[in-house]
Amino acid sequence: MVADAFSRLSMASVVHVEDGKKDLVCDAHRLAWLGVHLDECNEGGMIVQNGSKSSLVSNVKAKQDLDPIMVYLKKLVSKNDIEAFSQWGDGAL
User: Domain of life, per the record (predicted)?
Assistant: First the structure.
């Protein structure tokens, strides 16, 4: 039922699009609905970014500095004393 409503919404919003491009525009709308961002590159290509965040990942990142073992592992990673983990730009392991 939700899929049917979404399909009707997508089709209604592409009435102004050329017939040969409607499927592509519908796919772009579905991706946007899922939180995926499409950006155009200067070279003519596309960049795809997932804009949604998992609440589990957010919770784990927020609590890493509260766990003494994780604090210790992050310290080792920052000193390059351990290679089993890597640290992202946001400080998360």
Answer: Eukaryota
Residues contacting residue 47 through CB under 8 Å, at least 6 positions apart: 38, 39, 40, 41
User: In whole angstroms, what is the distance from residue 71 CA to residue 37 CA?
Assistant: 33
Judged by DSSP in three states, 34 sits in coil
Q: Which two tokens stand for residue 53?
A: 């965040």
Angle at 4 between CA 6 and CA 26, to 5 degrees: 45
Digit-coded pLDDT (tens) for 24-80? 888 888 888 887 887 888 888 888 877 777 788 788 888 888 999 888 888 888 887
Task: Tell me if the pTM is above 0.70.
Answer: no
CA 44 to chain centre: 22
